[in-house]
Amino acid sequence: MAQSFFIWNGIDCRSKGVIMRGPAPIVRAEERVNHVEIPGVAGDLTETEGENIFNSYIQTVSISVKGGFNVRNIYKWLRGSGYVTFSGEPDRRQAARVIGAITLNRVSRNLDLWAGEVQFYCQPLKELLTEGTVTVTTSGAAVRNNGDVNCKPVYKVTVASGQTGISLTVGSATLTVTDLTAGDVYWIDCAAMEVWNSDRTLLYTRYSSGDFPELAPGDNTVTFTGCSSIEIEKRERYL
After folding, report:
1. Within 13 A of 32's CA, how many CA atoms are on the CB side?
2. Residue 186 contacts residue 208 (beta carbons within 8 Å)
3. Nearest CA-CA partner of 180 in 192, 190, 172, 168
4. What stretches of 77-211 adopt beta strand conformation (E)?
5. φ/ψ bin of 112: left (φ > 0), alpha (ψ from -120 to 50), beta (otherwise)
6. How far is C-alpha 166 from the chain's CA centre?
7. CATH architecture assignment, domain 133-238
8. How many CA atoms lie within 13 A of 190 on its CB side?
């Protein structure tokens, strides 16, 4: 069996002399629900807070470190917030924060081996290490979201010749942006709900109206006017 590992903020634990003891579990976050008791009725009523709303969770990792001289360096490294990748899903990462105390105890005098645990407070949705990108040049094209939940893409829009505005529709959401320059490129960031010029120095959100279009899991029909092409950074998210 291959050695388990984790990567914290771009640094593989093995390069730090840290051994991850035991397999890296694959965790699916818990859906956020409320259980309401109804007087006189057996059981309870389960209410969700919304579609695809999941709780953050703690992932505890058992580690070993060789050499007491290295313990302080490990403490300095395993702190703060960032992104973590576990060997169970080596193609994905998730936002996390190191929480709680980290205590490494000496377990072998001859080998000078120290052991303990580190806790990562993980956000529920994971993202691919390499973002999926697709370019659309024909209105009505299908774009697939391979993730488990709606994703909030970044659309890189090139305004068509003779046009000063664009309209972008996915599903029931339509976003229009006016006061643009033909031939120029603009960024539509659905997560931030912002529209920027090509070098992201001028904000055009005030010229936009409607809803920022997300991509639902599966195939989505992307229709548009006023654009010669749209490059879509999908930002797919997984449980």
Report:
1. 11
2. no
3. 168
4. 81-86, 92-99, 105-108, 113-122, 126-128, 133-136, 141-145, 154-159, 166-170, 173-177, 185-189, 194-197, 208-210
5. left
6. 28
7. Sandwich (2.60)
8. 26
Q: What angle do CA 132, 150, 120 make, to 5 degrees?
A: 80
CA torsion sign, 215 to 221 to 226 to 230? positive
Q: Are strands 141-145 and 218-225 parallel, antiparallel or unpaired?
A: antiparallel
Residue 112 pLDDT: 86
pTM metric for this prediction: 0.84
Classify domain 6-125 at the CATH topology level: Elongation Factor Tu (Ef-tu); domain 3 (2.40.30)
Tens of pLDDT along the chain (239 residues) come to: 578 999 999 999 999 999 999 888 899 999 888 888 888 888 888 877 777 889 999 999 999 998 877 899 999 999 999 999 999 999 999 999 999 999 999 988 787 899 999 999 999 999 999 988 999 999 999 999 999 999 999 999 999 999 999 999 999 999 999 999 999 999 999 999 999 999 999 999 999 999 999 999 999 999 999 999 999 999 999 99
Report how far Cα 173 is from the mean position of its chain's Cα atoms: 22
Report domain extents, the chain.
Answer: 6-125, 133-238
How many Å separate Cα 113 from the centre of its chain? 35
- Judged by DSSP in three states, 196 sits in strand
